[in-house]
Request: fold
Amino acid sequence: MSVAKVSEISSTSTKSFDDAINLGLARANKTLRNVRGAWIKEQQVRVTKGKITEYQVNMMVTFVIDD
Reply:
């Protein structure tokens, strides 16, 4: 039987939502072991002078706890 835990993280990118997700997961994998999935809870953009300057995602990362 496995027991999992969920951690909420926020990640940003100047390129895209996809890049923000990948950067967030890469960073989570440096700290958390056994990452199994992520649920993208929110997406938002920052706008400067009418143009998108940053993409942000808030995600719930699921990881299995070691026995």
Summary: The chain has a mean pLDDT of 96.
